[in-house]
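Predict the assembly for these two chains.
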Amino acid sequence: MKKALGIALVALLAGCASQTTQPDEELSADSGYGSGMSGSELMGSGSGRPSYFSQLNDPNSILSQRSVYYDYDSYTVKGEYRDLVLSHARFLRDNPDANVILQGNTDDRGSREYNLALGQRRADGVRNMMTLAGARDAQIESVSLGEEKPRALGNSEAAWSQNRRTDILYRGE
Amino acid sequence: MSNYRFKSLRGVWMFFFWLISTPSFAQLNIEIFGGGASRIPVAIVPFAEENALPQNLTPVISADLQRTGLFRLIDPAGSSPHAPVEVVYSDWANRGANALVIGRVAQLPGGQVEIQFRVMDVAKKSQLTGLALTVPTTQLRAAAHRIADVIYEALTGDVGVFSTRIAYVLKRGERYALQVADSDGYNAQSIIEYTEPIISPAWSPDGSQLAYVSFENKKPVVYVQTLTTRERRAVASFKGSNSAPAWSPDGKRLAVVLTNQGGSQIFLVNVDGSGLQRLSRSSGIDTEPNFSPDGRYILFTSDRGGSPQIYRMAVTSSESGNAERMTFEGNYNVSPDYSQDGKSFTFIHRHNNQFNVAVQEIGSRQVQILTNSRFDESPSFAPNGRMILYATEINGHGILSAVSRDGQTRQHLTVQSGDIREPAWGPLPKWK
């Protein structure tokens, strides 16, 4: 029964996403909600810092990479960041207590309001990829900082490219 | 004195009172870069006794007129008439003046000042207009702006906007201040200050309230604040992002952009936060709504066609995916703002990696690019449609600038330190 529900939800999510293409194995029923639910029960509400943080911060793990960078005017997740996003998605799938905030950012050229919307679209795109790959919707909040919180300052492509970015932040970290 | 006809404004003289006591920490200065060819030559004689006032009037009046690019100021040196009988018209004609402004001030008990001034037609040797007004000494700059409005109106036939106010955001260090200042950048007052970003201030049609977006709760929320009382409330604080407030012309509703139903889409909400209604429906970004002066349409920015362009939709009681694309030149046209007559709009147009202020006629679709800087943002029409206020960047600093509707005159309103952005030109005062 749980498994059937999982299949149905994954199919629904797949139907919603228009832009993202996923490897088939990421869409298998086993990676869906069914297994996530039981995992959540097993983790319980232990005190202290969850053990998974050590894995997240291992510099040898792709999980220590937390930023997706974009081309100008674009919200498409480039191929070189696919593994990064999917690795975090699998991590969320396997650690149902983990929660992330996705912060979309833009460079500071052009309209602040349009950039706020563009940053949201960047974060939403990463969120879509992650839920398709088995992360639960409730584990992910996508927000935009627009051009308001630049990481790099200055009018150069070097600075701008640093600011066109979605950051993956784990809650409690 | 009773022989002279003065329109008295005593009793109808209205001011906004800014209750906050924080002094402004930045003053704006004006630089003029160019000017139109056919400017009206005007001589402004310093008013009798104005040197005794805490604030001289005629320098403020002169700067106001000069900033429009419509006037050429004639040096009055060597002659200082204060009453019509003292005017030697041939002298002013020889200096090339078409109009002459003269006046006097008198300090009254109780900290009041009476100002009388006249605009004389040099060719006809007669008075064009005149006015007497009594103001507290604390309101002398405001009185000077009112006088500049009267002169402007007498000489151009158009409504003056010197008595209006502007709002903008000033960033200094890690602090963001929403400020309101006179149209010349003086008398800046902070309405709110936070350590998180503030964007998109928008004046209520009666000038009594500002809507804006604050990130103080770590995400964008739309607030409306009453200027006199400082009272404020969140009008759009839904899940996700809330931004881009625009007032309906009747002041009862706001168009806002929400992400709580997916994407960035335009909604209508009553000023008290009730009555939420979805207006746009697209799979892309819809943002930066701006009402037409008659309230029937909304201009907005959308990337539904693949690049950000300006579209127009009718304001109806039901949501609609229908919108008419308005801009076609280039692949980045954003931040629309209607002119007061509803016949044109200003916006930001990108070309050759520059972001510039442009104006498009709605009927003919004719586009004129008015600036030539690199990073212009947030254009806002003056309420008489003759000038556009915008944010630009000089030496890495955000400053305010204004350009005449014909692109002939530009001036910078420079702040000494800090970044200034997101300007919004306020409405005409109620007594206009």
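The first helix of chain A runs from residue 2 to 16. Chain A touches chain B at residues 18, 73, 109-114, 116-118, 120-121, 124, 143-146, 148-149, 154-155 (CB under 8 Å).
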